[in-house]
Amino acid sequence: MTEPMAGRPRLRRPRELSNVNEFLNEVRLRPGIWVRRSSLQHLYSMLIGYAIASDIHDTEEDFDFGNDGPFSQWLWKRLGMAYPSALGWAVEIERAAEAAGTQPMETFFSLLDEFRAEQGESRNMDEECSP
Asked: Which domain of life does the protein's organism represent (predicted)?
């Protein structure tokens, strides 16, 4: 049995993950293991499958990654789009990455970090404003 590379966390199995954010953190660490050809469209399909399974099993988890979900709504504004894209966030991020000369998966995680930071700030503001 081989030992994990020094300084690199071990690969966690899906049953060890408790929510979509933990799954995305695993994808960030090893995109080639999780996502075929590091395609955002494949990642999107996996996330939709995750949402369907969560719905079937009646979990109480918030899901931000649907085509009309909070991540998409934020992204359209972030990319300066006047209206939502019918093609979805994966295609639009791939287009933006190509225009910028960056890798789509890298661009996705950079945007996800921005989204999470802004969501954290707005949640903190909501908590401060509540009586």
From this structure: Bacteria
Residues 6+ apart with CB under 8 A from 68: 84
CB atoms within 10 A of CB 65: 21
- Kindly state the greatest CA–CA separation across the chain: 55
* Model pLDDT for residues 26-66, shown as the tens digit of each residue: 999 999 999 999 899 999 999 999 999 999 999 888 899 99
Distance (Å, whole) CA 5 – CA 48: 32
What is d(CA 23, CA 28) in angstroms, rounded to the nearest whole number? Answer: 9
What is the pLDDT at residue 128?
44
Angle between helices 89-100 and 70-78 (to 10 degrees): 30
Is the pTM above the cut of 0.70?
yes
